[in-house]
UniProtKB/TrEMBL annotation, chain A:
<keyword id="KW-0560">Oxidoreductase</keyword>
<feature type="domain" description="FAD-binding PCMH-type">
    <location>
        <begin position="1"/>
        <end position="170"/>
    </location>
</feature>
<dbReference type="InterPro" id="IPR016167">
    <property type="entry name" value="FAD-bd_PCMH_sub1"/>
</dbReference>
<dbReference type="InterPro" id="IPR005107">
    <property type="entry name" value="CO_DH_flav_C"/>
</dbReference>
<dbReference type="InterPro" id="IPR002346">
    <property type="entry name" value="Mopterin_DH_FAD-bd"/>
</dbReference>
<dbReference type="InterPro" id="IPR016166">
    <property type="entry name" value="FAD-bd_PCMH"/>
</dbReference>
<keyword id="KW-0285">Flavoprotein</keyword>
<dbReference type="InterPro" id="IPR051312">
    <property type="entry name" value="Diverse_Substr_Oxidored"/>
</dbReference>
<protein>
    <submittedName>
        <fullName>Carbon-monoxide dehydrogenase medium subunit</fullName>
    </submittedName>
</protein>
UniProtKB/TrEMBL annotation, chain B:
<dbReference type="GO" id="GO:0046872">
    <property type="term" value="F:metal ion binding"/>
</dbReference>
<protein>
    <submittedName>
        <fullName>Carbon-monoxide dehydrogenase small subunit</fullName>
    </submittedName>
</protein>
<dbReference type="InterPro" id="IPR012675">
    <property type="entry name" value="Beta-grasp_dom_sf"/>
</dbReference>
<dbReference type="GO" id="GO:0051537">
    <property type="term" value="F:2 iron, 2 sulfur cluster binding"/>
</dbReference>
<dbReference type="InterPro" id="IPR002888">
    <property type="entry name" value="2Fe-2S-bd"/>
</dbReference>
<keyword id="KW-0479">Metal-binding</keyword>
<dbReference type="Pfam" id="PF01799">
    <property type="entry name" value="Fer2_2"/>
</dbReference>
<dbReference type="GO" id="GO:0016491">
    <property type="term" value="F:oxidoreductase activity"/>
</dbReference>
<dbReference type="InterPro" id="IPR036884">
    <property type="entry name" value="2Fe-2S-bd_dom_sf"/>
</dbReference>
Length: 265, 157
């Protein structure tokens, strides 16, 4: 790891100020992605600004049909939250399958979506449920937030403060984990919202998470697994790596999509 | 250098370290507690698992400065004098270790796991130890140890 200066921010505005004052500052949340990156010397920020002391960023609240999760809320807190389990069980289930217990005790929802790893789980939840990403400056709908591999709509000094999830009529996330890393080889979130069905896929897209229009309109017609026996027209380019070919991933999208629909009941 | 203080196994400790010092380095090199192991240093193996404020974490994936002011428990803090913690005793009795390299992390993960969920199936124990890798035992006796340790912890309550 290269050297850096460390600041523990006491509030979002304090963190924002520290970011502005640093020549090349970086936020650290749970550190479960950033610290491994720093160890490999893939990044060399001048300053790390720790959000760990910003209690305002941590917590879960449910208001009518909206679940709001603070950016510093850990995966374990989401997984074990009775409120999330009852309002959006698919989201609690997704969080309970991220990495392992120790990663879930530190890793945060804000860090996960800011990082936008193409194989991460939360991006599929945000896009599939049509979440709103709240920052210290504005609100960004998930459809505009995830812009490419490890790329988001966040500006340089912008800090995610919370994520707002609308409650679905029903939803399910099915993940085919890479057996070594536990990241998604393919993960599919199917959500029946009052406005229609949304289907988001992680792990498979060469540019990260994406929606499957063909599946959404088929499920709007008839919400059953057999509706997905159709051609997935307009799919984006799929990832090709040692874990699987694009064809393999395309098949998994259908298999996981069907399992998700079936599990929705 | 920054001064980092915390409570480790009930004892207040403090050392001047660089901000980039990992918590596991702080414990091993500054505090002299070498029970916590480094297996991979890439957040995969769990040999470095300790408890910070009651939660199990990988101490190779946390900075010492991030743990400033926290209550830390390492494998050295489990036993009561010469009396092994029930989970440690269960690993010994059930042959839950061979070389022992993974064991400090396994035991720390297991204690956190069964404290939160006292009635686990074998599958749940295996899932709960997802973050701990052992290259010797084949896991079978580890699961047996955790089950026995869990029962012994309940009995001791
Ligand atoms: C062994 C292992 C297994 C894993 N398995 C999975 C898995 O199965 N599925 C999965 O989805 N993930 C997995 N992860 C990743 C894990 O979920 C991380 O916790 C997560 O990706 C990053 O969250 P963090 O809080 O640790 O962020 P950090 O590592 O602290 O930060 C990540 C990035 O986000 C930025 N950032 C953090 N918070 C904010 C904020 N509030 N506003 C703006 N920018 C911010 C940081 O500057 C940094 O660039 C795994 C990680 C490990 C080590
Ligand atoms: S040494 Fe920390 S996870 Fe392997
Ligand atoms: S006993 Fe040798 S690595 Fe587990």
């Amino acid at each position: 790891m290269y050297e850096f200066n460390y600041h523990k921010a006491s509030s979002v505005s304090d963190a924002e100020q520290a970011l502005r004052n640093a020549s090349d500052g970086k936020i650290v949340a749970g550190g479960q992605t950033l610290l491994p990156t720093l160890k490999q010397r893939l990044a060399s920020p001048s300053d790390l600004i720790d959000l760990g002391g910003c209690s305002e960023l941590c917590g879960i609240s449910v208001d009518g049909d909206t679940v709001t999760i603070g950016a510093m809320t850990t995966h374990a807190m989401v997984a074990n939250s009775a409120e999330v389990q009852s309002a959006i069980p698919a989201l609690a289930g997704l969080a309970s399958n991220i990495g392992d217990a120790q990663v879930r005790n530190l890793g945060t929802i804000g860090g996960s979506i800011a990082n936008n790893d193409p194989a991460a789980d939360y991006p599929a939840a945000c896009l599939g449920l049509g979440a709103v990403i709240v920052t210290d400056k504005r609100e960004i709908v998930a459809d505009d937030f995830f812009t490419g591999l490890f790329e988001t709509a966040l500006d340089e000094h912008e800090i995610i403060t919370a994520i707002r999830f609308p409650k679905p009529e029903k939803a399910c996330y099915q993940k085919f984990p890479n057996p070594a890393s536990r990241y998604a080889l393919v993960g599919v979130m199917v959500a029946k919202m009052s406005s229609g069905v949304r289907v988001a896929v992680t792990g498979a897209g060469a540019d990260g998470v994406f929606r499957v229009d063909a599946f959404e309109s088929a499920l709007d017609g008839s919400f059953s697994a057999s509706s997905l026996d159709i051609e997935m027209v307009h799919l984006p380019d799929l990832l090709e790596d040692i874990h699987g070919s694009p064809g393999y991933r395309e098949n998994l999208i259908r298999v996981m999509g069907k399992r998700a629909v079936e599990a929705c009941g | 250098m920054t001064n980092v203080s915390m409570t480790v196994n009930g004892r207040p400790v403090s050392a001047d370290v660089e901000p980039r010092t990992l918590l596991v380095e702080y414990l091993r090199e500054n505090i002299g507690l070498t029970g916590t192991h480094v297996g991979c240093d890439t957040s995969q193996c769990g040999a470095c698992v300790i408890h910070v404020d009651g939660k199990s974490v990988k101490s190779c994936t946390m900075l010492a400065v991030q743990a400033a002011g926290c209550e830390v428990t390492t494998i050295e803090g489990l036993a009561n004098g010469d009396d092994l913690h029930p989970m440690q005793a269960a690993f010994r009795e059930n042959h839950g270790l061979q070389c022992g390299f993974c064991t400090p992390g396994m035991v720390m993960s297991a204690v956190d796991l069964v404290t939160k969920n006292p009635d686990l199936t074998d599958t749940e124990i295996r899932d709960g130890l997802e973050g701990n890798i052992c290259r010797c035992t084949g896991y079978h006796n580890i699961v047996k140890s955790v089950r026995a340790g869990s029962n012994a912890m309940k009995a001791a309550e």
